[in-house]
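Q: Can I see a sequence and its folded structure?
A: Here is a first one.
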Amino acid sequence: MNPLQLAPRLLSRYRPTLILPHPFPGLTLIHRMALARELLQRHEEFSVEHQGLRIAACFGPGMLGLQDGPEYRAHLQLGREVVQRSDCQRLGSFLDREANAIIDQATAHKATLNLVGDYLDPLCLRYLEHYFGIPDPGHGVLLRWYRMTSHYIFNVYITNGPSIELPAQRAGNRLLSHVTEIIRRRSESNNLEGEDVMSRLLRLRQTKYPELTHAELAQRLITLSSGGVDPRSGQRVRAALAQGVIGRRQSGRRQSRPHRDR
């Protein structure tokens, strides 16, 4: 058995809780599901306050950094109104068409396909613009903003320091400014048509949430969209492999092979 597969089983049996040494002081790993569930119910002892502070430093208060309560439920209700289950089929069809178009374009003049740079990044950018209404300012900078902030916010084992905090906070501030400016322009031009999430938010503000500012709408949109942007290229490559995108090829062309750039 692969050691990476064996280790969790051994830890679950002999060390259900493991306190990690330096450089992860104070971090404890839980290896039994029953114990993890029990701990997650102890809301007074375990909270999202830590990541909430990081989220606020990047782009203001967000649902993923709030404890259960009236404010959290208000954020959750708004999210449920603009992200709908019926979107899945339409979005899936769009992504399938775009994925094939990207592969065709990327392999038209070369034999190999760079899974991250040629395929996954362009597809992610098209997804953000099509479904959430957030276009890239240029050169893929939108993904860099998402990755830097997500890595900082959700990787709680990272030791804080200016080399990590400041770039991530600057990226979050720029992401918030970018989305806020798009919302401002669309509001002033009364461009509220469309079935992207931004359009739905703008229409809901007119009819139900007039108190929400441009920046508050942007904060909510960033929270909703960040779940669909995986900051780890390696995981996205493995997902692409699992979906069989490497096996696709045009008639008469050499099969595309993975080429890692990160």
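Q: Show me another, different protein.
A: A second, unrelated one:
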Amino acid sequence: MQRTVALLPSPTGELRDIREVAASIGLAERDLDLHGRHRAKIARDTVEAACGTRVGHPRGKYVLVSAITPTPLGEGKTVTAIGLSMGLWRRGRTAAVAIRESTLGPTLGVKGGGAGGGASHIVPLDECLLGLGGDAHAVANANNLLAAFIDDVLMRRSIPIDPFTVQWRRVGDISDRALRRIVTGLGGHANGVPRETGFDITAASEVMALLALSLDGRDLRARLGKIVAGFDGDRPVLAEELRCAGAMAALLREAMQPNLMQTVEGTPAFIHTGPFGNISHGNSSIIADLVALPRVEYLVTEAGFGADMGAEKFFDIKCRASGLAPDAAVLVATVPGIKSHSGRYRLAEGRAVPADLWRENVPDLETGAANLTRQIRNLRAFGVPVVVAVNRYETDSPAELRAVRSLAADAGAAAVAEHWGFAQGGAGCVGLANAVEEACRFGAAVRPLYRLEESPEAKIMTLATRLYGAADVSFAPEARRDLERYIKAGYGGLPVCIAKTHLSLSHDPALKGAPSGYTFPIRGVRLAAGAGYLYALAGDIMTMPGQPSHPHAAQIDVDAAGRVTGLV
């Protein structure tokens, strides 16, 4: 591991030159493509060198941050990941955080941009939240280029493709429910073949997913060529055959390079790719991890939504692709969030939080902790020590905190650590950092939850029964037809990526806590051959969100000095 320069916490709001941030973990100016003073992309030569030495190369400890099932309160997973990385610096450790890029749908909608908050966030915040140099735009262009090629082939009949087997959809980065189902090709033969299709959000694109899972530029190019555009009978028609994959790779050339930014305390942050955790695999890029791990003592990365979502896909999809395995996992929880899983509080985006939720109520906490304990066991099933990080509120009572510690310990957590990352930044996360360091010494024996040789149905059954609490799985006739086609074409040995609600362990967002005994419904299956998985749609999950009743975009503006206002 390279020796690095000393880095002391920067005063909140004071930005460091990105070259100084890079130097703190051994990156020289030649390793950067600068985008102003405060942001850079990792140079392509540096990326390829890091990816080429991934096997057997010394590396730092690798820490995964996940959470209980999300609530409208927000559990502060990104705040915790950023705060933990800053807390490790305060303990004298070189550390970096690796998170996904913000996407415009959530940033302009209701959830927020996923760049942290309070005293634990990424800066400059406006650059981080509003496009980050166009990576998502490049993903959308590459995705939509293939869509245009597919429609052109259908019109010209130059390559035989059954139009009813085409599942490739166009994408956009703005939540727009009117585009979920559309008809293209209207207006006569010159305008293409009329067919029903639709748009997905850019973060749900297979291009975004495979960009995050690629090992280097050559792997990215190969994965693009493997994308299945449709079928000719039982034969998959690949993007390579459409002669489209090369141009897609060209459009993604800069998007492949991870972005280096900084936390509010001036410590390094790798921000790269942005697949959603409910309708994709929900993890930042392997390439960013490969660049960072040899240069730090600790790399903290975050998986989308709860441990049953992004964390499961981290282990079963991302770790399989990268060959890397975490040394410990952090499960983020809050006392109000745990209590809300009792089902006794009416919470919804945009609604006022019930006043009772802030009052001490140990019985409700003990009921809601069924979700906490299930998610601890979910993470432990993968063979990693688990640290529960309690993201503190002023209203948390000593009795409630004692109950959380006791319940988490009974469920097998290696430690429970409270933190004040939102209010105090790295200083409020030193205790959590200490607990994570101790957990990393335990040793992990990481294992996936299923074998690739199992049938897709068996893999889905394993996830539904072992992680989600289901008693059985039902497959709609359309899902079975799709699976039969994919298995016959040779794709049965791929991992599975479940697209389901993030608001429940089940497929139904109304089922709180730790539901059990229900039937988990699979209504359809898509193939993401380039990303390297089968993609099962459970319940009513949608791949294009709509605008909320009170969109965040309504409060965003630009002042007379050209500064963006209202982002937070």
